[in-house]
Write a structure and sequence with these properties.
Layout: H1 2-17, H2 26-35, H3 44-65
């Protein structure tokens, strides 16, 4: 029982560090990595989730800077 509580606490702490919200589908990410001939590390999905959150933040800032409320595909291109 104590191990279960530790796992839940660990997951909650990880979500808080990464912005709190899951943005990517872990099974889909793992499938794509497997198709590429690699294994998925325990922190890979969390890292990708953080990167996606960063990109969304950059895209929304660019849209607002251009006087728009709609994020478009070109807002993600650096």
């Amino acid at each position: 029982m104590a191990a279960k509580k530790k796992k839940k606490a660990k997951k909650k702490a990880a979500r808080k560090r990464g912005g709190g919200e899951i943005l990517v589908v872990a099974s889909k990410v793992k499938d794509q990595i497997k198709k590429g001939g690699c294994n998925t590390g325990g922190d890979a999905v969390e890292g990708l989730n953080g990167w996606v959150g960063f990109l969304i933040g950059q895209a929304t800032a660019r849209a607002k800077a251009n006087g728009r409320k709609t994020v478009r595909a070109h807002d993600f291109i650096l």
